[in-house]
Structure formats: C-alpha cells, structure tokens
Specification:
There is one protein chain. By secondary structure, the chain is α/β, with parallel strands linked by helices. The protein has 2 domains: 124 residues, no CATH class; 305 residues, Alkaline Phosphatase, subunit A. The chain has 14 helices and 16 strands. Helix 5 runs parallel beside helix 11 and helix 11 runs parallel beside helix 13. It is globular and about 65 Å long. The protein starts with 11 loop residues before the first strand and ends in a 21-residue tail after the last helix.
C-alpha cells in the first residue's frame, strides 16, 4: 500500500480566512507499522458534566466485591452504554468533601460546580472576590497546551451568567463553570456551535476582515468550498487510503457546518425556555448536544486540543426535557421528597443525558486514530458533583471513566473504593497518565488505583 508523499504531522488546508487542520494520516507516520501509528497517537482528556445529581438506585451496578465485572444487565440509567461495556468503568465511593457546607450553610449547587474539578471548597461570595482552585483540566492545559493549537476547549449546552447570586450567596460563576484557569478565574463554557466551529476552523480571521466576512456571507460559501482547491492539490500527493480519510473528514466538517446553518435559519418555538437562547442555538437538546460532541470529536481528531470539558447543563438547571415528554424543570424535580413520580422523571432525564454521552462514545469509537480509534486514545470522565440531588450528597458521586488513553484498561468493571476516597485522587491519576504528574490536587491524598486490569 502506498502512502504517497511523506507529510509533517501538522498540515493545514487554507482558504479565505480559513485554516483547516488535518487528522492523522498514514503519510504523516514514519513507517507503516502499528508501533509507529501508536507512537503518533497522543492521549486526550475530557470531562463531561451533568448537574443536579443522579437517581443512584438506577445507576450503581449490582455487583459484589471491590472490583467486579459489570453485570450483563446494566442499571436503567446506564443501559445506553451497553455497546461500550468493555471500555467502561463505573467508579463508586468517590467524595468531594469541598462541596460540603463546612460551616458555610446552604449552597450545594454552587459548591458542586466549582469544586468538581478543583477539589477545593469555594469561597462563599457573589461578588468579584471569587476563590476556588485551578481545575484538573487546566493543570493539564497549562503543561501540555503549547503542543496544540488550543490549550483546552470549554463547551456547554446551556447558557449561563458569570455574575450575581445564584445559590444562597454563591456567585453564578461557581454554578456555571467547572473549568478554572486560576483560583479566581473560571472558564465559562461556550454554548454556541457556530462560535466553536469558527474558532476551530479559523473563521476568526475573516471576522476581523469585514471585506472577507461580507464576501463569504454574500455567497454563503462553505468552509470546505474555501479550502477545496488546497484539498484537491493535496490529494494528488496522497495514497488511496489517505484520500479516503481526507474525503470522510471533509464530509464530516461539511455535515456539521450544514447542521449549524440549519439551526440558525430555523425559527425557535415560542416557549419560555427558547426565549433565553442565544441566536443560532438549536432548541432541541439532542441536536445541540450532538453538535457540540461532534465539534469536540473533530478537535481531538485533528489534535487541535487534547483537553476539554463539556457541561450538558448547569447546576440548578431548570431546563424541561420536552424531547422525552417532561415538562417540569429538572432542578425542581430533583427536590422530590420521595415522590415516586418525580423520582422516575429524574431517572429518565439522567438516562437521556447518558444517551447523548453514548453518542459521543460512538463518534470517538468510529473515528480512526493511529493504531486504533479516538476512544483508544482518550480518557473521558462522566459524572456529577452531586449524588442524590434531593439530599445534596457529595459522597459516592456518580462517576464513569471510559476509554483506554494513557494505558487505562477499563475491561467492563465496577470498582468500589473505600468510602470518602477523595475524587481528587482520580484526577491525580489521570494527570499522571497524561504525562502531567502532580504531587497533589485539592484534598487528594494519593493516586487512585485499579485503573488497569490486575
């Protein structure tokens, strides 16, 4: 099999105000071997966050022992992940003590968000004197971010604000961000698919060029149209396999661009929830979340970043999920006081979120990368800063770890750690596997074990 012309790892297609990075091609590898391919596939780290806790009775697998295989029948909420069982670990027993009141009274949602990746108890304030900690994703971004175009990506599916009192004296910034660049500087998630797309593919250059921007809008030209000449020129130097990879990649970009354009043209339904949506954001949660997951996949595929966070919703989110027939606000339902009807609806929302997460895993699994797929070279943590949303528990937090990045071997296991094991120990272990060793993070007291088969 011929690779055609040898290429450097970083090659870009260029057009009017547009720069499109390429995925890993065979022609970029020093030799045709699995070892060479593996050596060129970097490890990535992603954190997917869901708010307001989980119905834990429908989450925790019914297994025995400290380390057990996942049962054939996964719990109701986790059922959508059945096809990814062998790359899935369910972790139980992890605690974020900094999310507890510790003398500060109410405010569990604000603390849950700010504490989740920092493992630090945030200062109770709704002024400018924010104080939390540097989050795990940003520790990685600061150490390895220079190797990629973007140090990190912070994505979301619900618009929030960064000022004001959102939770009993805790600033909205605490509830609305899980990524913290410094102890006083959160990284608010970007919720607009168009903004993320233009950041990834260089349209920011044309934004600063009014003439170029106007010309492109006048003809409604696609990003792919702008780089097509460069792409066709490159294809003449590639082997057959790489030409197919390039075509599939450009098709994926065009598909996302078309979906974004469709969402921008579609009128929003006349509902209270849609009135607060920024322009261009799909009203349908499935459409919105999958656009963001697809953009995240492209960012990892092209090595534009190796670190990302994505909040499917904000703490205290009052989003109704009409897509699954739930009209009531999510946060309000979690204060169910034992009402079985409300508990069932919360479990349906939890499962609905997991269904979208399963979509991301499917995209990662189907995207070639080095000697395997992106899912082989990524560590994805999925979870919440609260367990039971009615009691506002900060112990035994719902936590999944998926992927084989950094040598992790999930093997379809449920690992029960000792009660009150710091969640920060997991982050210390993941950072170590990213090549970013740290002595401690927040309240960590070691490095979490059992992340590989014994």
């Amino acid at each position: 099999m011929s690779f055609g012309k040898r290429l450097p790892r970083r090659v870009f297609l260029r057009g009017l105000g547009t720069t499109v990075a390429l995925p890993l091609l065979d022609a970029m590898m020093p030799a045709f071997s699995r070892a060479a391919a593996a050596s060129k596939a970097p490890c990535r780290m992603a954190f997917v966050y869901v708010p307001n806790g989980i119905v834990m009775d429908a989450w925790i697998p019914d297994t025995r022992g400290e380390i057990s295989p996942l049962p054939d029948a996964l719990p109701k909420i986790l059922e959508p992940l059945a096809s990814h069982r062998q790359q899935l670990m369910v972790l139980s027993g992890l605690t974020q003590n900094g999310g507890r009141a510790l003398g500060d009274g109410p405010g569990d949602h604000g603390r849950a968000g700010a504490n989740y990746l920092t493992a630090v108890h945030p200062r109770k304030t709704f002024g400018k004197d924010l104080q939390a900690g540097v989050s795990a994703d940003q520790i990685a971004a600061q150490r390895i971010g220079a190797e990629t175009r973007f140090r990190s990506l912070e994505l979301g599916c619900e618009q929030g604000i960064q000022g004001g009192n959102c939770d009993n004296g805790y600033s909205c910034a605490y509830s609305n961000s899980i990524s913290w660049r410094t102890p006083s500087a959160p990284n608010p998630p970007e919720v607009r698919p168009r903004a993320v797309f233009e950041r990834l593919f260089g349209a920011g250059d044309s934004e600063r060029d009014p003439v170029g921007r106007a010309r492109r809008q006048r003809y409604e030209r696609s990003i792919i149209d702008l780089v097509l000449e460069d792409a066709n020129r490159l294809k003449t130097t590639l082997g057959a396999t790489d030409r197919r990879k390039l075509d599939e990649y450009l098709f994926a970009i065009r598909d996302i661009e078309t979906r974004i354009q469709s969402a921008e043209r579609r009128p929003l339904p006349a509902t209270p929830a849609s009135e607060s949506l920024p322009p261009g954001i799909p009203a349908d949660f499935v459409e919105h979340s999958r656009l963001m997951f697809d953009l995240l996949t492209l960012a990892f595929q092209t090595d534009m970043t190796r670190v990302a966070t994505l909040m499917l919703a904000l703490e205290q989110s009052n989003r109704p999920y009409r897509e699954i027939g739930i009209q009531e606000a999510h946060h309000g339902l979690t204060h169910h006081r034992g009402d079985p009807d409300k508990i069932a609806k919360v479990a349906r929302i939890n499962r609905f979120h997991v269904e979208q997460f399963a979509y991301l895993l499917g995209r990662l699994k189907s995207t070639p990368d080095g000697d395997g797929s992106l899912l082989d070279h990524v560590m994805v943590t999925y979870g919440s800063g609260l367990a039971d949303g009615n009691r506002h528990d900060h112990h035994n937090l719902p936590t999944l770890l998926v992927g084989r990045g950094g040598g992790i071997q999930p093997g379809g296991r449920h690992v029960r750690y000792a009660d009150e094991t710091p969640m920060a120990n997991l982050f210390v272990a993941l950072l170590d596997r990213m090549g970013v060793p740290v002595e401690s993070l927040g309240d960590s007291d070691g490095k979490l074990g059992y992340l590989s088969n014994l």
